[in-house]
Structures
1.
Amino acid sequence: MKITPFGAVREVTGSCYLLETDKTKILIDCGLFQGGQFAQAKNYNDFGFNPHDIDAVILTHAHIDHSGRIPQLIKRGFTGPIYTTPPTKEFAKLLWYDAEMIMAENQRKFGAPVLFSKEDVKIAVRKLKAIDDSGALCFKDLQIQFHNAGHILGSAFIEITEEGRKTATFSGDLGNIDTPILKQKDALNKTDVLFIESTYGDRIHEKKAERWQILENAVTETINQGGVLLIPAFALERTQELLLELNNLAEKKRIPHVDIFMDSPLAANVTDVFRSYPKYYSISAYNQMVGGDALFDFPGLTVTRTRDQSKRINDSRWPKVIIAGAGMMNGGRIQHHLVRYLSDPKCTLLIIGFQAEGTLGRKLYSGQKRVKVLDEYVTVKANVVSIGGFSAHADQKMLVSWIRSAKKRPPLVYCTHGEEHASAALATRITEALHIEAKVPRPGQTITV
Ligand SMILES: [Zn+2]
C-alpha cells in the first residue's frame, strides 16, 4: 500500500492521510488547518488528490482539525461513506453545524468566503456510518480496526491491513494519562508502520495534581471576595471534565455553594452526547454514575442554551461562576462576559487550555492590560490565573512508553501532527530509547509500505 500525508506534517492541524492499494483509495481524517492566517488560507487550496477518486473516509475523532474539511470534500465531489465510532458520529454533526454557523456569520460581518454550506453539512451527516462495538470493519480489500485512543470520548487509533499484506497504524490523537472521564488508551498491536502524533513530542507535562487545586482555590477566592469567576472552555471534553471536577468539589463540600452557569449551547449538546455513552467511561466515572451521581449536573449548576437565558446571567446575584466558549476567547458568548467583568478587580479569569498565537486568550494569558473585545477597549483589572499542564494529549514520555509496551514494536515510525521541532524531538527519542527507525515525513511525500 501507499500512504501520503497531506496535512498535519511539520504542523499540528489539517490531519489527512491518503491510503492507496491497487483496488482502494481511502482517507484517514480530513481536518481543517487552524491557527494563523497563513495556516487557515490552506483550507481554500486543492486537497492534493481528486475527491471523486476517494472510496471512503475513516475518521479517528471529531476534533475539527481532524474532521473539519469533510463537508468541503463532499462539496468537491466525494460521494463515499465516512466510518467512525458512534460518539464521533454525533460530535462531528454538532461541530460541523457549529463551524458552518461561525463561517456564515463571518461572511455576513466581514465578507469572508465560506468553505462549505449547510447543505454540504447535511449530506456529510447522512454519510456518517457508526462502526459496531467490535470496532472491526471490512472495506473492499482492507481490514480496518478501531481501537480506543483515550483522547476524547469515542476517539480512536486505526489499524489498517491490506488483504494478505502489510499493516499500517494511524494514532489519531493519543490521550493523556489519568483523564477523569475516559478509559486509558488500548495497547498498540503488531504493525509494519506507525504514524504517530507528536503535538507534545518535545515536552513532558507538569504534574497534574496541582491543576485542580488551582480550580478549587479560584472558586473559593472568588466566593470569598464576592466576585465572578469566568472560565472560557472548549466545548468538547474539557468542559465535561471541568463539570465533573466541579461536581466532585461541590459534593465533597470542598467549595461553598455558588451559582455556576454553563453558557454554551454547543457544550450543552456535547454533554448530552456524553450522557448517552457511559460504556466509554473510565471505571471510576462509570461507578460514580452507577452510584447515582449525575456527573455533569450538581446543585447550583444552570445550563443556558438560549440567548435570553444567557443575558439573564448578567442580572443574577454575585458571587457566581460562568463557563462559556470559545476556549481561546476569540468569539462566542465568553466575549460578552469579558466585556462586563474583566475590568472589575473582584473578578477572576481562569484559563484552562492552550491559547494560540494571535487570539484574545493569548493576549490575556500573556498579561496584556488593555484588550479589544467586541469592538470595545477593556482595561483588565480582574485577576488572570491559568492552569498549566492540562492537555488531552500524551506527552513525549507517554508516547514513547505506548510504543515500548506494544504487543510487538513496529519496525518503522513516522512522527506527524506536531510542529517540526516537536516531531523531530520525538523521532530522535524513539530511535534512542527503542532503537526503532523514526522519521518526520514531508507534506505530500508518498510512503510505500
Ligand atoms: Zn484531537
2.
Amino acid sequence: MNQLSFLDDDPPASSPVDWSPTRSAGIARQEYFVPYAGRAYARARNFDLAATDRTNISCLSPWIRHRLILEQEVVASTLAKHTFAGAEKFLQEVFWRSYFKGWLEQHPAVWMSYRRELRRSLDQLEQSKPLRARYEDAITGRTGIECFDAWARELVELGYLHNHARMWFASIWIFTLRLPWQLGADFFYRHLLDGDPASNTLSWRWVGGLHTKGKTYLARPSNIARFTNNRFDPTGQLATVATALKEPDSGPSISLPSAEHLPIDVPYGLLITEEDCHVESLKLKRPPSGLIALAATNRRSSLPIGEPAQAFARGAVEDGVARAETHFSIEKSEISDLENGDRGWGKELIVFALRTDVKLIATAYAPVGPVAEELAAARTVLAAAGIRLIEVRRPYDDAAWPHATKGFFKLKAQIPKLISVLN
Ligand SMILES: Cc1cc2nc3c(=O)[nH]c(=O)nc-3n(C[C@H](O)[C@H](O)[C@H](O)COP(=O)(O)OP(=O)(O)OC[C@H]3O[C@@H](n4cnc5c(N)ncnc54)[C@H](O)[C@@H]3O)c2cc1C
C-alpha cells in the first residue's frame, strides 16, 4: 500500500507506470486507474507521493495529449464505473485540457507573444552571464532548494511531474528565483511527455497571474511539506509574496476557425501528426489512398528537446501509423524521416501527393502550436501546386471549445450537458 490511507477504494500497491507511447499502454493505464477515479482521486490527487508511486493520479496525460486515447474515452470509461457526482473532480480535470485548448485557439496572439518573448529571453541568456548561471542552476537542479532541484532532475529524467509539483516549481521559478516565466515554460515544454502548447503556456501564465489577471499562485513551504508527505520542507527558502506579472495587452480574442469537411467523393492522402494519433476514429467517409506521418517535436523550442519527450512523440506517431495501416488496409506509409526540417512540410506533402496521385490531403485538426504553424505554411505551398489541405476537427472539440472564452468555470458549468451531447 502507499503511505496514505484512502479508505475502501484505495489503489492497490504501487506499480511503476509503463510510459510506452502506444495506445495499448494508454488503455492499460486507463483500465488500471479508472476504478479509483472517484472518491480516492478527489481525496488524494494533490499528494505528490513519489515518482515511484503514482497510484493516486491517472498519469494519462501523455496519451491524451497525443490523442492516443481520447478525452471522451476517458470520460466514458469513468462513467461506466462511477456516477457523475462520484467522479466529478476527475471529470473536471479532464475538461481542463479542453478548456485550455479552446481558450488558446481563440487567443493565438498569446502563443505568439510567448514565442517572441522566449526568443528575447534566450538572447538575454547569451548576453548576461549572471542570468545564464542562474538559469543553468535551475534547469540542472543546483539551486540549493532541495525540492525544486529534485523536480528539475525528475522532469529531465522521466518527462513527467505531478501537477502539484508543476505548480510549486513554476511558482518558485517565477517568484523565488525571479527567472523569466517563458524560460521555465520552455524547460517544461522541451521535457514533458505531455508537453502541450495550451496546457503548458496557460498554466505558467496562470501561476504568474497573467491568465486570471492579478491572481497568482504562491508555493508555500507548509503546503509542500504536507503534500509531499514531508519528503521536502523548504521552510525559509521561498518567496513569501507573489506579485502578479504584468505584460502589454495581447489583443482581442478571435472567433474559432470554422470546421472543414472532407468531400465524400474525392481521393485523398492522410497525414498523421503528433497532435492526433487515433485517426481511425476521425470518422472519415472513405479510406485514404495513402498515409504519411510528420513530426514537429523539434519545433517546440530552439533548444534541444528532452530524449523521453522526443521518443514519446515519435513512438506515438509510429503507433498511430501502424494502427491506421491496419484499419485502412494500407500496405506502406511514409514515415521515413518524421522531422523533415530542411525540406519543409509543404514540399514533403507535394511529393507524397504526387506519389499517391491525390489533390487533397486530410489531417486531424492541429490546435495552436508548432504543428499548426507547419500546416499553415504548408497550406500555401500546397495551394500553389493545386493541392488542398483539410483539417478535420473532432465533434468533442467543436462542442467544448466554444465554452472556453473566459474562465474555466463557464465551461465547467457545461460539463454535464457536453457529456450527454457527446454520448
Ligand atoms: C506549470 C504547469 C505546466 C503544465 N504543463 C502541461 C503540459 O504541458 N501538458 C499537459 O498535458 N498538462 C500540463 N499541465 C497540467 C497538469 O499538470 C497535467 O495535465 C497533469 O499533471 C497530468 O497528470 P495526470 O494525467 O496524472 O492528471 P490527472 O490528475 O489524473 O488528471 C486527468 C487528466 O486531466 C487532464 N488534466 C489534469 N489537470 C490538468 C490541468 N491542470 N490542465 C490541463 N489538463 C489537466 C489531463 O489530461 C490528465 O491526464 C501543467 C500544469 C502546470 C501547473
